[in-house]
Structures are given as structure tokens and as C-alpha cells.
Write a structure and sequence with these properties.
The chain has helices spanning about 1-15, 20-25, 30-40, 45-55, 65-85, 90-105, 110-125, 130-150, 150-165, 170-185, 195-210, 215-230, 235-250, 255-270, 275-285. It is mostly helical. GO terms for molecular function: DNA binding.
């Protein structure tokens, strides 16, 4: 029994995961991983999940070569980097990375193809200025995600699909899909994956701003900021604080708006979002706070 645990431990460390990270990836708690690695228990379900994550048949799992584990690690690291580029809105670099993944030998599983269609759609929309291609890739990612991806990944792709509609000017459709994503998340604790919940709420707030529904926008910004606070996350905190202040201004709460905008500039600079911070400063000048 202990050899299974040792193998799991070796696998985890080679992939640079802590026990907590590994448990989260597999959908169990850290104590379970600790017991498996110590040989205290053997959990066939966890072994099955590990194999599934690696794209390996469970019967072949313990015959897996180290090179296969390294390939998996490289794929996961590349995905993290592409997600980082998306967050930083560096779509030019992201386009090169996604292209290399399509052409390379490692992104072969169905889940990998979901990821590539998803991010190719983002690239087509923001970098290539090809909304039709963006729509096709995002819809293919959604179709495949229903079969091969986790619940939260499906929500994230749906969020991107809503953004496509927002960028292409179909605000009502965007609102529909953002609400669909929000409704899917509503049955779960938002602190399980706070970034996903915050991102959907942020985009809803943005959409309401475009519709000049400032009360609704402020409410969604507030909800997202509460999740940031409870999860001790700074993700999108600057943008959300700005949104909240912007809505407050248009609702007639100018002192609150000024405080929020000043705070948002500090947050944005902390998050190294200099361009957004400069935009917030310019907006404050336009509002002519006294």
C-alpha cells in the first residue's frame, strides 16, 4: 500500500504542487492526500482522478514514465502562463503562445483542446479583430467543455463567450450569458474558486455600466468586493473599487465616489495596472471633485 502513496507523493512533487494544491485539483481535502501519501489508505477514486487529469488510463497509471509526467507539468505551466497573459491583456504574446501550443506535440488531450479553443477565441477577439472566428472557437470550447471539463472551467468559458457579445456590441446577449454564469455559480460557495465568481460579477457590473444601470452595477461590484475581502484576494480589487465609485457618482453620492476612486488608484498601482490608474485619475479630473 505504501508504494502507491510514495508514487503519488513523487508525482505531486515533480509537478510542483503542495498537498493543498493537489487536493484542490483533485477535489478532495489535504488530509486525504496526506493519508494516501503515507500509505495509511489507498483510494481508488483519487488514483482514477489523478490518472484522468494526466490523460492516462488508470490501469496504466503506475507504469507511467517520468517523461509523461514532465510533459503534463510543461502543459500545466504553459496554461498558467497563457492565463497570466490573458489577465494582463497581453494578447499579442498570448497569440504566439497559443499558436505554438496548436503546433507543438504536447497539447493532445481533449481538455487541452478545450483550453486552446477557448484562448484562441480570446485571441481572435482582442488581437486578430476577427469576431466570427472568435465566436466559432468559443462555441467549440463550450461544446467540448460540456463533455470534458470541470464545472468551473465551463463557467469561465461561458464568461468569455459573454465578453465576446459585450465587445461586439450585443449588450443584452452579454447580460444574458453573464447571468447564466452567475446562476450556475449561485449553487456553490463563492469562496471555492473566488477568482471565477469575482470575474463574473465584475463583468456583470461592467455590462450594467454600459446600460447606465448604475444601481445594479454598484450592487455587483459590492458583491465581488465582499468576495475579495472574505477570500483575502486582491484580484480585480482596483477595477471593482473604481466601478463602485463610478456608479456612486452617477447615483449622486459624490463624496463616496471620490473616496472610492482615490482608493481604486492606490489599488491599481499596487496591482501594477498603471494605465488603468491613469485612466481613473483622468476620470476624477472630469468629475471635478471639490
Amino acid at each position: 500500500m505504501k508504494q502507491y502513496g510514495q508514487y503519488i507523493s513523487l508525482l505531486r512533487t515533480r509537478l510542483d504542487y503542495t498537498q493543498k494544491d493537489f487536493a484542490q485539483m483533485l477535489g478532495c481535502d489535504q488530509a486525504m492526500i496526506s493519508k494516501i501519501e503515507s500509505g495509511e489508505i489507498v483510494c481508488g477514486e483519487i488514483i482514477h482522478h489523478v490518472a484522468w487529469k494526466l490523460g492516462i488510463h488508470p490501469k496504466e497509471f503506475f507504469g507511467t514514465k517520468v517523461s509523461q509526467l514532465e510533459d503534463f507539468h510543461n502543459v500545466e505551466q504553459t496554461k498558467k502562463y497563457i492565463r497570466y497573459l490573458a489577465h494582463k491583456r497581453d494578447y499579442k504574446t498570448m497569440a504566439c503562445q497559443v499558436r505554438d501550443c496548436w503546433n507543438g506535440p504536447h497539447f493532445q488531450s481533449k481538455k487541452d483542446h478545450v483550453f486552446l479553443h477557448w484562448h484562441q477565441g480570446i485571441v481572435e477577439l482582442h488581437e486578430m479583430n476577427n469576431p466570427q472566428a472568435a465566436k466559432q472557437h468559443l462555441e467549440e470550447a463550450l461544446r467540448m467543455a460540456d463533455q470534458f471539463e470541470t464545472f468551473f472551467k465551463r463557467v469561465e468559458i461561458l464568461n468569455s463567450y459573454a465578453i465576446y457579445h459585450l465587445v461586439t456590441g450585443d449588450t443584452e446577449a452579454a447580460l444574458h450569458y453573464f447571468h447564466q454564469a452567475e446562476n450556475l455559480l449561485s449553487v456553490l460557495d463563492p469562496l471555492i474558486h473566488p477568482h471565477v465568481s469575482v470575474r463574473v460579477l465584475y463583468n456583470l457590473a461592467t455590462t450594467y455600466l454600459r446600460l447606465e444601470q448604475f444601481k445594479d452595477s454598484q450592487h455587483k461590484s459590492f458583491q465581488a468586493l465582499q468576495i475579495c475581502k472574505e477570500s483575502k484576494s486582491t484580484y480585480l480589487r482596483g477595477e471593482l473599487t473604481y466601478q463602485y465609485g463610478y456608479s456612486a457618482y452617477h447615483l449622486g453620492y459624490k463624496e463616496k465616489a471620490q473616496r472610492c476612486m482615490e482608493k481604486s488608484i492606490i489599488y491599481l498601482l499596487d496591482e501594477e495596472e498603471e494605465e488603468l490608474a491613469e485612466y481613473a485619475v483622468q476620470q476624477m479630473h472630469q468629475f471635478k471633485f471639490n
